[in-house]
UniProtKB/TrEMBL annotation:
One of its GO terms (molecular function) is glutamate-tRNA ligase activity. InterPro entries: Glu-Q_tRNA(Asp)_Synthase, Glu/Gln-tRNA-synth, Glu/Gln-tRNA-synth_Ib_cat-dom, GluQ/Sye, Rossmann-like_a/b/a_fold. It comes from the Bacteria. Residues 15-261 form the Glutamyl/glutaminyl-tRNA synthetase class Ib catalytic domain. L-glutamate binds at residues 15-19, 51, 195, 213. It comes from Pseudoduganella aquatica. Keywords: Aminoacyl-tRNA synthetase, ATP-binding, Ligase, Metal-binding, Nucleotide-binding, Protein biosynthesis, Zinc. Catalyzes the tRNA-independent activation of glutamate in presence of ATP and the subsequent transfer of glutamate onto a tRNA(Asp). Glutamate is transferred on the 2-amino-5-(4,5-dihydroxy-2-cyclopenten-1-yl) moiety of the queuosine in the wobble position of the QUC anticodon. This is Glutamyl-Q tRNA(Asp) synthetase.
C-alpha cells in the first residue's frame, strides 16, 4: 500500500513520556495511543521515558503501574525505559553550555512579583509574561531563586522573536516569544529542572525525531524549538492531538480528578472501557473483539486519518 503521508528521511524515533504522579487516565491513554500508532505507521521505534523530575509530586510505585498498563493495552516499547532523575548530568551540561553562551541569568522574582510588575506596566494577563526584571542583574538584597533563559527582546526584529513551525495536526503555528512568554525558567526556584529544558535535552539525547503529544503542550513547542537551536540540537517534527476534557470543560488530568483507566480488570474489559473510547476520541471509529485485533485495525486507520488531516490543517497561533 502506498502511503499518502509525507516521506520521512532517516529512521523514525517517537516517545511517550508520562509523569509518575498518578496512574494513566483516559487523557494520557489518548496521547500514548497516538504516539504509539504514529511510530507503527512509520515503522519506527517507540520509546518510553518516565518524567519524574518533580520529586515532590511523584507517587511511589506509579511508574511501574504505568508500564504495566501500557503492556496490558498491547503497547510494548522499544529498548530500555529511561527515568529523568538518572539523567541530571545531561541537564547540568546543557545549563553550562547556555551559561557559556551568555544565554541565561539568575532570577529572584516570585510569581506575585511578576504579576505586580505586569500591573505596573499595564500588561497584566493570566499568562504571566516575564517582564525581564532580573535580566540586567539582581536588585540589591535579592537572592537568586531560579535560572531564566533570555529570549529575543521585544525591540528585536519580528523574525527573531516569532517562532513558527508546522504541526502535523494543526498546520502552521507561530508564537512571539517576547510578547507571549518572555524570558522563561529552565531551573526552578525549588532547585528542580524545568520541563522545557529537560524535555529538549532528553529528546536530543535519545534521538527523537517525532513528538506526538497533547495539544495542551502546543504553546510550549516554540520555547523548545528555541532551546534546541541554542543547544545545537536537531528539531523534531511535532503532532499535537486534542486533549480529553471533563464535564466542566477542564483538561482531564490528575489535578482535575481523572480516574485511572486500568484498575486491574481483565484485558478484555480494557478494550471496551479504555482502548476503543480513546480511539474514538482520536477520530478512529473501530470495531474489535480483542486487543490484537484492535491494533491491527488501528494502525491503518491512523494512517488514513493523518493523510486526511494533512490536507485540511491551516495556520494558527500557539496560544
Amino acid at each position: 500500500m502506498t502511503s499518502a503521508l509525507p516521506p520521512y528521511i532517516g529512521p523514525y524515533i517517537g516517545r511517550f513520556a508520562p509523569s509518575p504522579t498518578g496512574p494513566l487516565h483516559l487523557g494520557s491513554l489518548v496521547a500514548a495511543m497516538a504516539s504509539y500508532l504514529d511510530a507503527k505507521v512509520h515503522q519506527g521505534r517507540w520509546l518510553v521515558r518516565i518524567e519524574d523530575l518533580d520529586r515532590d509530586r511523584n507517587v511511589a510505585g506509579v511508574d511501574q503501574h504505568i508500564l504495566a498498563s501500557l503492556q496490558r493495552c498491547g503497547m510494548q516499547w522499544d529498548g530500555e525505559v529511561t527515568w529523568q532523575t538518572l539523567r541530571t548530568d545531561l541537564y547540568e551540561a546543557a545549563l553550562a553550555q547556555l551559561g557559556d553562551a551568555g544565554a541565561v541569568y539568575p532570577c529572584s522574582c516570585s510569581r506575585k512579583e511578576i504579576h505586580d510588575s505586569q500591573l505596573r506596566l499595564g500588561q497584566a494577563s493570566s499568562a504571566l509574561v516575564y517582564p525581564g526584571t532580573c535580566r540586567n542583574g539582581l536588585a540589591p538584597g535579592k537572592a537568586a531563586r531560579a535560572v531564566r533563559l533570555k529570549t529575543p527582546l521585544r525591540t528585536a526584529p519580528s523574525p527573531d522573536r516569532v517562532i513558527c513551525f508546522h504541526d502535523r495536526w494543526h498546520g502552521k503555528v507561530c508564537q512571539d516569544l517576547a510578547a507571549e512568554v518572555g524570558d522563561f525558567v529552565i531551573r526552578r526556584a525549588d532547585g528542580f529542572w524545568a520541563y522545557q529544558l529537560a524535555v529538549v535535552v532528553d529528546d536530543g539525547a535519545q534521538g527523537v525525531t517525532d513528538i506526538v503529544r497533547g495539544a495542551d503542550l502546543l504553546d510550549s513547542t516554540p520555547r523548545q524549538l528555541y532551546l534546541q537551536a541554542l543547544l545545537g540540537l536537531p528539531q523534531p517534527r511535532y503532532l499535537h492531538v486534542p486533549v480529553v476534557a471533563n464535564a466542566d470543560g477542564e483538561k482531564l488530568s490528575k489535578q482535575t480528578g481523572a480516574q485511572a483507566f486500568d484498575n486491574g480488570a481483565p484485558v478484555a474489559q480494557l478494550l471496551e472501557s479504555a482502548l476503543l473510547p480513546a480511539a474514538r476520541f482520536l477520530g478512529l471509529n473501530l470495531q474489535a473483539d480483542s486487543v490484537e485485533a484492535f491494533w491491527r485495525a488501528a494502525v491503518p486507520a491512523w494512517e488514513r486519518l493523518l493523510a486526511a488531516k494533512d490536507q485540511s490543517s491551516g495556520p494558527r497561533s500557539a496560544t
